[in-house]
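Our consortium's second objective concerns turning raw sequence data into structural hypotheses that experimental partners can test. To show how far this objective has progressed, the report includes one record in full. It was chosen at random from the queue rather than selected for favorable results. The single chain below, 283 residues long, was entered without modification.
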Amino acid sequence: MRVLITNDDGIASPGLVVLAEVALAAGAEVLVAAPHRQYSGASASLTAQEVGGRLALVDERPPGLPPEVASLGVKAAPALISFVAAYGAFGPRPDYVLSGVNLGANTGRATLHSGTVGAALSAATQGIPALAVSIASPEPQHWATARLVAEHAFAWLLSRPDDEERVLNVNVPDIPVDQLRGLRPAYLASFGAVQARVREKGHGYVQLTYSGVDAEEEPGSDHDLLLRGWATASLLTSPHDDPGETELPSFDGDGDERPTVDVSSGTVMSSGDDRPSGEIEAD
């Protein structure tokens, strides 16, 4: 069993070590391949830095990683790391992808923007079962709690090897193990732990403010349970069409023969400097 560990906080994050140790304890061969710097909010972006047409790699290790675990810093978004790993970029295709442990919660519909969840969803689109784990603090103090919950979550994932198109998204409160109330299934809160508002608009700029979301009126949601001392587990699906019973728009054109059509698949956004193209550089 081969497991890829990645994240969106960068190769120096101690959360990588927690998941690597969980995978090692389960008997896996482990590879850490994480962005060379922070990619929080990258969602499922496929941005990368290329040098001479090659994806740039850095020989770096998170602090405390067991010496037997190979590690790479990749100048790419976490979703791209999962994507190319599925095609053998870092050795044999992984059987599982574990993403995190993210610094800060990834709850509610705000999971759409998470690079941690994006990496897991990218793996799922390639048929690789994936787990995303987050701890609800930017400076966690209780990694043992995250490890305990991740162990249970990974064991559940291993028991469902055919469920490769969904992602288990887990959030852990940053509290001592003896204060943890347990792990509970949860639905996504209406938005998430943080939301943004436009504070001011001016010539050539927009200023945003960020604030916490009060989810107490959503009992049973991931954010609500997290606030009350529970770790939460939510099952996410990778993108798929879902028309249901909806009648979609259609019409018949004038063409009466099958034309020859060139369909472009686009390109991965990349650049030769230290910032992937498409990013906004501060003045």
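The partners drew two points from this record. Residues 275-283 have pLDDT under 50 and may be disordered. The two ends are 46 Å apart (CA to CA). Both points have been shared with the crystallography group to help prioritize constructs.
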